[in-house]
Amino acid sequence: MKILVTGTAGFIGFHAALRLLDRGDEVIGLDNVNDYYDQRLKYGRLAVSGVEQNAIEYGKLAQSKTRGGYRFIKLDLTDKEALNRLFEQEKFDRVCHLAAQAGVRYSLTNPHAYVSANIEGTLNILEACRFYPVEHLTYASSSSVYGLNEAMPFNASNAADHPISLYAASKKSCEMMAHTYSHLFGLSATGLRFFTVYGPWGRPDMALFIFVKAILEGKPIDVFNNGEMKRDFTYIDDIVEGVIRVIDTPAASDPRFDPASPNGATSSAPHRIYNIGRGSPELLTDFIEAIENALGKKAIKNYLPMQPGDVPATFADTSALERDLGYKPSVLIQSGVDRFVKWYRDFYKV
């Protein structure tokens, strides 16, 4: 298949593109390579994909030097005309939309970035998929949409209508827009609510990256909610396996959908929502212990209260993923952390 993957200079998009290429798909990667975090990491991911920084020019496709089936284009999703030209020219079979402005805490101080990147950008993807039809749109959502919901494990069939950060609200907006396009235009679309993704080439604004860097430098780490946070940490390979299986399984209308008692995860339209998480939440303190084990060094902990926009716990119900796609994430925390630490030491030579 010819597949557009947005966000391929980012963490999940980079890994997803490589997996698709490994199995023989033709991939066009798209990213605006913004400066939300260190661009050296973004260009480093692209270099691993065979796309050198000096070959990248805005709005033009760059051919990978090591992978014949991969081309990359630096493009902003708010550039509607350029995006439509790309769709018209390439005639994609499927689209995997992973590009987004990430980060809960950043959304407290930079709210407009989330409206333009996540809402406007996703709208432009939906419009392009409508006018230049694709077989299936897979798009990234987030466990953050569950917000004030404390009925655990989180089940995608339940309502998720009380977000507590603009990041979460923007992701919920994407789900609602995608469903609308599925209903109005028959666009097959599947949303994936990711749960605390970690692993090699991860984002430097996430806990694992921050903790490893600080511990190696002998600096204290901030431990919010006094370490009583629980997260459903999910290793990147598990996330990508779920993404690939969903790409291969276009959403269809659910004949059992009852509008008098609607299921939030399915629809009479060809739209689905799945959780992708390990289904086994871990205390933040236990996650830190796994990092200490991998580094052979103790952390200096600075205990702090809960931060605005954070939730005390996440816990994925992945039964629908298991039922429909025969898949359940399985990588254990210590194994995943060990792999990240090895990558970090190799990349940063520490």
Low-confidence stretches: none
User: What share of the residues lie within helices?
Assistant: 25-40%
Rounded to an integer, what's the Rg over CA atoms?
19 Å
What number is the mean pLDDT? 95
Large-scale geometry = globular
Number of strands: 14
Structural class based on helices, strands and sheet pairing: alpha/beta
Q: From N to C, what is the helix and strand string?
A: EHEHEEHEHHEHEEHEEEHEEHEHH
Strand content: 15-25%
Spatial separation of the terminal alpha carbons: 40 Å
Number of helices: 11
Side-by-side strand order of the widest sheet: 3-4-2-1-5-6-7-12
Biggest pleated sheet: 8 strands, mixed
Short synopsis of the structure:
The protein is an alpha/beta fold and 350 residues long. The protein is built from 11 helices and 14 strands. The longest helix is centred in the middle third of the chain and has 21 residues, at 111-131.
Describe the overall structure.
Helix 5 runs parallel beside helix 6 (166-185) and helix 7 (207-216) crosses helix 9 (284-295). This protein has 350 residues and is α/β, with parallel strands linked by helices. It is built from eleven helices and 14 strands. It has helices spanning 11-22, 39-48, 80-90, 106-109, 111-131, 166-185, 207-216, 236-247, 284-295, 319-325, 333-348; strands at 2-6, 26-31, 61-63, 70-74, 94-97, 136-142, 189-194, 197-198, 220-223, 230-231, 234-235, 271-276, 282-283, 300-303. Helix content is 39%, strand content 17%.
Identify the notable features of this structure and list them briefly.
two-stranded parallel ribbon, globular, 350 residues, alpha/beta, 14 strands, eight-stranded mixed sheet, 11 helices
